[in-house]
Amino acid sequence: LRWLSAGESHGPELVATVEGIPAGMPLLAEDIDEDLARRQRGYGRGGRMKIETDRVRLVAGVRGGETLGGPIAMVIENRDHASWAGRMGPEPFPEPPEALTRPRPGHADLAGGLKYARRDLRDVLERASARETAARVAVGGVCRKLLRSVGVEVFAHVLSIGPVASPTSAASGGGELPLTELRERARASDLACVDAVAAQAMRDAIREAAHRGDTLGGVFEVIATGLPPGLGSHVQWDRKLDGRLAQALMSIQAIKGVEIGIGFEAARISGSEVHDPIAYDQGAHAFTRPSNRAGGLEGGITNGMPLICRAAMKPIATLKRALPSVDVRTKEQFDAAFERSDVCAVAAASVVGEAMVAITLAAALLEKFGGDSLTELSRNVDSYLQQVRSY
Ligand code: EPS
């Protein structure tokens, strides 16, 4: 599986291409639009979300509602582009647009400006912007469809926003909520938070941060159910699925940490409290675990339990109450530039996290089972599952 995104935040459109999806998979734009709409939600989003209504246009690789096995190409329009005429198009500008020269601490502005030798920092921030994650979610939507065809579901929920935490984490027992319930509650919440009391406290914290001209980060958890044991491998560093998931999640704008299962907590308690005992269910011909602190991965391989990973998002770098910065042209000290921004985008990031996990799992699934058509892939999966049952 290969994929790429292209596009600037206020450019005409975002583009994504994904290659390696087998032929014969039903795929409609509306399957993807549902994820795109969820990514736009969330208490604490800024004015831009009122302008955009993200919808995907499938422009290659799909015919009559089914994939053809060739590259799938998708386009998402940036509606806000209309108000950037003369400043963001590919043609030379009649008048040079005003350059953005005050880098925001915590954003890619300064590091990117130095690296690409751009004097107008807009040339950097337009691509660094988290607007690009709409394209990732489109690719994730295609991969989710593939995973669903073999019984795998991926969903996410928000564990904390700033100092406010939800009591429910799947890795530490799920707060006794079944995963299906966790998924439904997350979907019904504007903050993707399964606990109504925590969600209210989160909204209050976001509102207060907005009053102060400040922003908030948080932690979300991504869960995948229905995975066969055996995705990923222990035999080489770059085939370990935990490492690949960490890279995928860490690559999301503003993500600063990733955990698998109980993650950092495992370093604070002893081995007997960390590792999940192994049992065998004679009826189901399956190995079972009474707990899932490993988050469904051992040796970089799925072990048949639900996959659980978490990501920590830093607060958004665009602050109304700007931090000190230096104008790159004059070298004078200024407060950084303020662009319209979100106060908190953790719920949106959790949908992007789902997409990145879905893409990584779809890649691992295709590596293990191959198949140029969905029929071939399904046959290969079924035959392997039979082998596992008779192990
Ligand atoms: C972003 C800044 C804001 C966000 C944007 C990410 O955009 P603007 O500068 O146009 O107000 O709204 O997120 C999206 C547009 C999106 O679709 O998620 C940034 O600087 O990263």
UniProtKB/TrEMBL annotation:
GO biological process, one term: amino acid biosynthetic process
Chain positions recorded as FMN binding sites: R127, A128, S129, Q253, A254, G299, K314, P315, I316, A317, T318, R340
Cofactors demanded by this protein: FMNH2
UniProt xrefs under Pfam families: Chorismate_synt (PF01264)
Positions contributing to NADP(+) binding: R39, R45
Catalysed reactions listed for this entry: 5-O-(1-carboxyvinyl)-3-phosphoshikimate = chorismate + phosphate
GO MF: chorismate synthase activity; FMN binding
GO cellular component: cytosol
The keyword Amino-acid biosynthesis belongs to this UniProt entry's keyword annotation: yes
EC number: 4.2.3.5
Keyword Lyase: yes
Keywords recorded for this protein, A-Z: Amino-acid biosynthesis, Aromatic amino acid biosynthesis, FAD, Flavoprotein, FMN, Lyase, NADP
Listed pathway(s): Metabolic intermediate biosynthesis; chorismate biosynthesis; chorismate from D-erythrose 4-phosphate and phosphoenolpyruvate: step 7/7
Co-factor binding details: Reduced FMN (FMNH(2)).
Family matches, as PROSITE patterns: CHORISMATE_SYNTHASE_1, CHORISMATE_SYNTHASE_3
InterPro entries reported for this sequence: Chorismate_synth (IPR000453), Chorismate_synth_AroC_sf (IPR035904), Chorismate_synthase_CS (IPR020541)
Xref: HAMAP family: Chorismate_synth
Self-association and partners: Homotetramer.
Family: Belongs to the chorismate synthase family.
Described function: This reaction introduces a second double bond into the aromatic ring system.
PANTHER family according to UniProt: CHORISMATE SYNTHASE
Record's protein name: Chorismate synthase
Native source species: Sorangium cellulosum (strain So ce56)
Gene name tied to this protein: aroC
